[in-house]
């Protein structure tokens, strides 16, 4: 199996606290991997290390076989590592369509002035509309971003992330703060991206039951370490994982 990310003994400490501890993992290409673990397990810190927001205290990160440990987050985005919060600078007073069109334009490295070139402008807008359809937000294309419901804003963020056309999508709790009614729509969006099969999705989620069906693989973090990485069914059966979630795991051998 081809892997898009490989980490080698990746660690980071904040003061004396080791948040990610000697993590050596491989993330399969064009698959859906979910990252789960109790509060404080190091999930978001792991993402921050992958996207370049944080520098490791030790260890290395390889992306498509290249050592990216010393690369900036901007360089990593250019190389194809996309993270949802990097584009949360949604312009609140622009419409949904305008926001996505600007993200499409920025990906094409076109200067703002080029907007006046009608043909290009049309092309960007069509691409933006396609993305809005993919995230089930096309009916809101003309709504001003500030007026969107929380779940719709998260969908807009995903559309803008997709506009960057990165091969790897790091989604940190895309359903956080959503109402129960909003959750199925965002899962549908993620499912559609997955079904296209040309991207690697890594997703942190607290609501484990929701994403197990979608996942090709589940990675469980606990105290900054890799507790297990397996298929969803194997993870569900894993006694050590069950113990971690029940708050135990003091004596792994008895689990
Ligand atoms: N910038 C920081 N400075 C100091 N400590 C930090 C920093 N970032 C994270 N930590 C600590 O590292 C540990 C891991 O945090 P992290 O946010 O990665 O966990 P998490 O698994 O994402 O948790 P949650 O599910 O609650 O979001 C926690 O103990 C947290 O307090």
From TrEMBL:
<dbReference type="InterPro" id="IPR003593">
    <property type="entry name" value="AAA+_ATPase"/>
</dbReference>
<feature type="domain" description="ABC transporter">
    <location>
        <begin position="5"/>
        <end position="248"/>
    </location>
</feature>
<dbReference type="Pfam" id="PF00005">
    <property type="entry name" value="ABC_tran"/>
</dbReference>
<dbReference type="InterPro" id="IPR003439">
    <property type="entry name" value="ABC_transporter-like_ATP-bd"/>
</dbReference>
<keyword id="KW-0547">Nucleotide-binding</keyword>
<dbReference type="GO" id="GO:0005886">
    <property type="term" value="C:plasma membrane"/>
</dbReference>
<dbReference type="GO" id="GO:0005524">
    <property type="term" value="F:ATP binding"/>
</dbReference>
<dbReference type="InterPro" id="IPR017871">
    <property type="entry name" value="ABC_transporter-like_CS"/>
</dbReference>
<dbReference type="InterPro" id="IPR027417">
    <property type="entry name" value="P-loop_NTPase"/>
</dbReference>
<keyword id="KW-0067">ATP-binding</keyword>
<dbReference type="GO" id="GO:0016887">
    <property type="term" value="F:ATP hydrolysis activity"/>
</dbReference>
<keyword id="KW-0813">Transport</keyword>
<dbReference type="InterPro" id="IPR051120">
    <property type="entry name" value="ABC_AA/LPS_Transport"/>
</dbReference>
<protein>
    <submittedName>
        <fullName>Branched-chain amino acid transport system ATP-binding protein</fullName>
    </submittedName>
</protein>
